[in-house]
Amino acid sequence: MRVLVLYGGRSAEHEISVISARAICKALSFKKYSIVLVGIGQDGSWHFKGSDISILDHESVVERESCVVHLDCNSGDLVNQRGDVVKESGFDVVFPALHGPYGEDGSLQGLLEMANVPYVGSGVAASAVAMDKQLSRLIFEAIGLPQTQHIAINRIDWANEQPSFISRIEKEFGYPVFVKPANLGSSIGISKATNQAQLLEAFAKASFYDDKMLVEQSVDDARELECAVLGIGNSVTVSTIGEIVPGSEFYSYKAKYIDDCAELIIPANLPSEVVAAAKDFSLRAFRAIGCSGLARVDFLLGNSQRLLINEINTMPGFTPISMYPKLLAHDGIAYHDLISELVSSALEKGKIK
Fold first, then answer.
1. Which residues partner with 243 through β-bridges?
2. Whether the predicted pLDDT of 261 surpasses 70
3. For residue 353, what pLDDT is reported?
4. How many CA atoms lie within 13 A of 336 on its CB side?
5. What pTM does this model have?
């Protein structure tokens, strides 16, 4: 079976995608799949890379000495700039190892749907809603899941009504608050603001990545919990609950991928009622968003022991230090078996269509 692994992409999570793809391809090789690699450059161009996974040793998509291709939506084939099908580029299923906008937000999923190509993960609507933290939180609110107080602010509205928003944030939330891009992951662009000057800096940082920002009230001494959800066919598996101890003020991009100072605790030391609630919330969120295949659900647990849902990710990290595969490995699903199950499920879902 030939699996097309898409990696890289236009988002700020480009390098994380390469690391995920590297681990995914090693798992596919272990299970004897044939691999077809296409790297998406930061400009959005697609580059056919053949089957040599050593290309993934680079930190980003190397564009030189590669064939520029695109997906023909009529035939579902990879074709070159002349419109010819690229030799040895045939595939049976796509594994989109892409994180963030233009990969995890429904845009790529829409392209694959138009080409009638089976792929791993959630569909267009679920991917789009999960990517947008404001929209997903509206869904969480509608089904009664507790979450932090927050407001979404558009970049233009912030520029025109900044004093009004600052006053509202200080009155309703107080400090500290977290400011983050509404459509991004891997903790990129997130800042903690403890005063007005830091709030302004946080907005400037977040608005570099997105037109819409989310401001969240801080939770005192919050513990960061995560749950993996695996949806294969009609069966949905909810994992053990894990905890991340950041090793810094919060679980930032630097703490995740550069310093590697965070500690992953599996299982988290939690009261049984908190574990039950986290599993219940994860399953309800997965179904309400309309996810399929996989998702990781993140929570905050404050001093009051009140569990708050934070976000859901439809294509969580698959790096060697990522929580999603580690949680399922703890529950007996080895990394290579997890990847194989996701591929098989994608093919079955494609047949049903």
1. 225, 265
2. no
3. 59
4. 9
5. 0.91
